[in-house]
Design a protein that fits this description.
Layout (H helix, E strand, L loop, with lengths): L6 H4 L2 H5 L2 E5 L5 E5 L10 E8 L2 E7 L5 E4 L2 E4 L8 H6 E2 L2 E3 L16 H8 L4 E2 L3 H12 L1 H8 L2 H7 L11 E2 L7 E2 L5 H15 L9
Antiparallel strand pairs: 1-2, 2-3, 3-4, 5-6, 7-8, 8-9, 9-10, 10-11
Length: 211
């Protein structure tokens, strides 16, 4: 059965994010979002699977963001709303947690045998590289205020440069303080993303659109 909405709904952000859809697979998994494909809830996702039906749910595919292209002009049209999802629950001084501490599946430490480490890898472990896109979003949304907030995160990363791989940034960290460094001690994507965001977003020294 097709469901249609007129312009009074589709041109009103409050209306489109207030109308949600849910499709289950009968095995504890589902696909869910709003009618505008703007995620507003932690459990929204296009492919949420139950690894131990009906529990152990993992978001395998969050969403697909649309981009309009005309010649060489590209315009991203996707959007998301996650009230309070990143700060304070996911943000740490050295990156973003992969799961909020209040979630029952949260695993605070990346330790143990291979199975135990894999179980923690995306269940609360902090990923340093995610600090890069977070800083970019912070500055784009909050401007000068976001830049000031982002600069306050820099000292913790600077301190880390002399605690694990000298002059490097680790791959991951424990989800709980003091956020011990784990995984690769010199991870390229951690260094690259944080360095990019620091130069382009916090210092404003990146290439311009005309370059």
């Amino acid at each position: 059965m097709a469901i249609a909405f007129d312009h009074s709904v589709t041109q009103n952000l409050g209306e489109v994010i207030g109308r949600e859809w849910l499709e289950t697979n009968g095995l504890g998994g589902w696909a869910s979002s709003t009618i505008a494909n703007i995620h507003t809830r932690r459990y929204h996702g296009l492919l949420v699977a139950a690894t131990q039906p009906p529990v152990g749910r993992v978001v395998l595919l969050s969403k697909l963001d649309e981009t309009l292209m005309r010649g060489e002009i590209r315009r991203a049209v996707g959007s998301n709303v996650y009230p309070g999802a990143v700060h304070p629950h996911l943000l740490t001084p050295v990156g973003l947690r992969s799961l909020a501490p209040h979630d029952p599946a949260f695993n605070p430490t990346y330790q143990g045998n291979a199975y135990q480490r894999d179980a923690a890898y995306h269940q609360g472990t902090v990923w340093a590289w995610l600090l890069g896109p977070y800083l970019t979003a912070l500055v784009k949304v909050r401007g000068k205020t976001g830049r000031k907030q982002g600069l306050k995160l820099v000292p913790a990363v600077q301190d880390h440069l002399s605690t694990s791989g000298i002059g490097q940034i680790s791959e991951i960290f424990d989800g709980d303080p003091p956020h011990a460094p784990r995984g690769c001690m010199a991870q390229a994507w951690s260094v690259a993303e944080i360095a990019r965001a620091y130069v382009e977003d916090l210092l404003g020294a990146g290439p311009s659109d005309e370059d």
